[in-house]
């Protein structure tokens, strides 16, 4: 326990205490917008089909344009890209609220939803990139880099627990419009604060000549036995399947709670899974270095398969709580390991784009599974949706077993050419010790 605390102290010493808090509040709107837009449009239009179309358009916008924003961040730096994206996203989210309340037709409402998704400022992937860059600039060891991934993964998990919960609370006490309005305010304020934080200088962009391929030329030789790009593609596939598990579980949990006559319990059940996932995620920082990424990937995907299998025969509320809560213990380790593998295997000049693409794969898997599993749940009951979750876990494990994972980094860590100069002024939150004079 003491070792875990000390490790995370080293992480906070790199980032400063303000950055994790700001990044958490800035990524909350992402977790609120998907569920919030669905509830808002469903309530104002009276049509679940319209709500599904708008929610789907939001997801498609995020999946297609997320990697573009990541690429722009690699090229031009996070500060300018996040400032612009946060401003557009705040306006688009507010427009979505206004359009829904004004009972706009489905097509223009879906167009606004697509713009909202396309302008999501990707705080989660970009915060990972920034924190890793700070760790490399400080020449931190791999245990600290691993703790960075664990902390960022936990912040993601907590945001995706609290985000929908805040939307549900707003809908219960007043109206879903208040939740989306709050999301617009959060992204405007904290997205801007995140962009302007002094640590943004460490991700100031790379010149065009440094960003040709995903890996240095020395790692792409014909005689190389390990092919890092294969790892990256396998990890992206694994994240897509993880998203499919999320979507399938959402559909199955909803279908089962409706069958049991307690539909309000669906969000609570799903939140319980997220809480356990976050707790296990934060504990990963305590794992010793001998538990490498290959072992972690295989253990996490194997656990997901074993823990998800009982869903196929679960038919009561309390058994559902037990099975889903236990299953949550496998989710964060897989996500954290997948992003850590991405960071290990790609060149720093392409890290933001790679992180964004990995996150887009997760969203795409979830959206695809939600559409497919909704129909399966209608035709075959909750087990039809849960079968997709189990199948996705099985393929995840297969990918982890057959993919060669490099034992060490396939690149040399470098910091942005736009990083701070020696003697930079200290940051207000104490994070300047990382980059001043290095």
What does this entry look like structurally?
- There is one protein chain.
- The protein has 438 residues and is mainly alpha-helical.
- The chain folds into two domains: 1-11 and 19-139 and 157-205, Up-down Bundle (Growth Hormone, Chain: A); 226-406, MFS general substrate transporter like domains (Growth Hormone, Chain: A, Up-down Bundle).
- 74% of the residues lie in helices and 0% in strands.
- It has 14 helices and no strands.
- α1 (2-15) crosses α7 (142-173), α9 (228-259) packs antiparallel against α14 and α11 (293-308) packs antiparallel against α14 (382-402).
- The protein is globular.
- Residues 209-228 and 415-438 have low confidence and may be disordered.
User: Beta-strand percentage?
Assistant: under 5%
Distance between the termini: 31 Å
CATH architectural designation of the largest domain: Up-down Bundle
Order of helices and strands: HHHHHHHHHHHHHH
Oligomer: single chain
Q: Outline, from the CA principal axes?
A: globular
Helix content: over 70%
Q: What name goes with the CATH superfamily of the largest domain?
A: MFS general substrate transporter like domains
Q: What kind of sheet is the major sheet?
A: none
Tell me the name of the CATH class of the largest domain.
Mainly Alpha
Q: How many beta-strand runs?
A: 0
Extract low-pLDDT stretches.
209-228, 415-438
Mean pLDDT: 83
What number of structural domains do the residues give? 2
The fold-level CATH name of the largest domain is: Growth Hormone, Chain: A
Total number of helices:
14
Q: Helices and strands: which structural class?
A: mainly alpha
Q: Tell me the Rg in angstroms.
A: 21 Å
């Amino acid at each position: 326990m003491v070792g875990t605390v000390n490790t995370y102290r080293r992480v906070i010493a790199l980032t400063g205490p303000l950055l994790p808090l700001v990044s958490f509040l800035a990524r909350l709107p992402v977790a609120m917008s998907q569920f919030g837009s669905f509830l808002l449009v469903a309530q104002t239009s009276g049509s679940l089909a319209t709500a599904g179309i708008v929610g789907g358009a939001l997801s498609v916008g995020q999946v297609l344009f997320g990697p573009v924003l990541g690429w722009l961040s690699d090229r031009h730096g996070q500060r300018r890209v996040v400032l612009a994206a946060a401003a557009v996203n705040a306006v688009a989210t507010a427009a979505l609220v206004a359009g829904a309340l004004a009972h706009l037709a489905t097509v223009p409402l879906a167009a606004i939803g697509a713009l909202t998704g396309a302008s999501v400022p990707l705080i989660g992937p970009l915060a990972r990139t920034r924190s890793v860059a700070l760790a490399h600039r400080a020449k931190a060891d791999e245990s600290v880099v691993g703790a960075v991934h664990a902390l960022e993964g936990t912040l993601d998990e907590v945001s995706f627990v609290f985000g929908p919960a805040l939307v549900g609370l707003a809908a219960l006490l007043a109206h879903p419009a208040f939740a989306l309005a709050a999301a617009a305010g959060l992204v405007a304020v904290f997205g801007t604060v995140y962009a302007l934080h002094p640590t943004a200088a460490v991700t100031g962009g790379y010149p065009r000549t440094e960003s040709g391929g995903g890996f240095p030329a020395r790692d792409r030789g014909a005689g190389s036995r390990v092919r890092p790009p294969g790892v990256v593609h396998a990890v992206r596939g694994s994240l897509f399947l993880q998203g499919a598990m999320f979507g399938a579980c959402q559909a199955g949990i909803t279908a089962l709670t409706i069958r049991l006559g307690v539909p309000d319990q669906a969000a609570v059940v799903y939140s319980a899974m997220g809480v356990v996932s976050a707790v296990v995620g934060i504990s990963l920082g305590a794992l010793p270095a001998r538990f490498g990424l290959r072992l972690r990937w295989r253990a996490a995907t194997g656990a997901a398969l074993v823990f998800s299998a009982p869903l196929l025969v679960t038919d009561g509320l309390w058994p559902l709580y037990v099975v889903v809560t236990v299953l949550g213990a496998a989710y964060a380790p897989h996500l954290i390991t997948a992003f850590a593998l991405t960071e290990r295997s790609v060149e720093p000049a392409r890290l933001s784009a790679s992180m964004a693409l990995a996150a887009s794969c997760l969203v795409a898997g979830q959206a695809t599974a939600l559409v497919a599993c909704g129909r399966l749940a209608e035709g075959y009951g909750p087990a039809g949706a849960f079968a997709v979750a189990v199948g996705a876990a099985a393929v995840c494990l297969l990918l982890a077993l057959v993919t060669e994972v490099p034992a060490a980094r396939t690149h040399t860590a470098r910091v942005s050419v736009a990083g701070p100069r020696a003697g930079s002024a200290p940051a207000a939150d104490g994070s300047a010790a990382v980059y001043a004079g290095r």
